[in-house]
Amino acid sequence: MLHHLPRGGRAAFSFCQGWIRTLALLACAMLATGCATQKPRPARAYTPPTVASGESIFGPSVLTPEQELEALGRNRTTPAMLRRAWLELQLRHPQSALDAAAEVLFGSSKPSTSDAAIARYLRAEAYAQQGMPERGRYDLEQALALAVDPMVVRRLQAIAPTPAEAPPAMDAGIAILPRATWSARAPNRGNMDAMGKVTRVTIHHSAILLRDDRQSACSAQLQVIQRDHMGERGYGDIGYHFLIDPSGRIWQGRDLRWQGAHAKGEHNVGNIGICLLGNFMPGKDGQKPNKEQLQAMERLVVHLLGRFGLQGDDLFCHSHFRNTECPGPLVEPVVARLQRTLQQRSPRVAAAE
Ligand SMILES: [Zn+2]
Question: For residue 240, how far is its CA from the centre of ligand 1 (angstroms)?
Fold first, then answer.
């Protein structure tokens, strides 16, 4: 029937058709946004914290921070206010976090020592999030003096400035390019746990082919990895503590004061993650590690084991913890050799400090 229409008529018809399609698409889009903006219902019955401990204030929840804030509603007990401040920090609302912590500290009833420690810690974090960590210095000192809960103490130690203010990664003759060299994004501390005691070191590869070893290319690669980890995967920072490029430069990743995100779940506890940039798989999509890169890995591993009083047995490949080819069949034997060499040395690697 269409081809019986005169020229203009056909144009008018398809114009109409176009509009109908646009309207239909708009309606769909509106429906979809309508769904998206509908408040998701809490999946399970929610019990607000009744005591303030490290676990109840900083622990995970089945709800999103938004859902949990809504569930807390008008609950103004001290544990609820502290949890509220923590959730506001997760959402990067430092002013709301400051308000909630202030209510605990300066509200009608005097807080217990341990509640005050948590509130002071939350204030220090909120000021840091506002870009004014010096304003939170007093809170931090107070919190350090008052805290007893081990989880709170660990978080405090992680953010407390070290007396010498020396960057932790630059010691013992190992040259490490600081985060500023690759314009690292600021981490989101709310998504990280304090490192605690270091007990092991794990080797990875980035699984991304990288033959260009110019500093600019490598630094761009680090930014890509950080963007993926913080964006796609929702980590608090780049997951690895150190990254080594093909020419053997060692780059600082996540600060060692924070637990990494590289070996999944509990395997990250006390585990330093080192990532070799490159894809060390056999075949045309892979690459061989350079001698300089492997030597730098060895230097760094020996240094870290020494610094934390660990042995060859405490060195692992990612594949040890899960079914993965990481760090690649071309690197794994090198790590195994290094493990053996270190085990054969004196029972403990001499402490460097
Ligand atoms: Zn890995």
Answer: 9
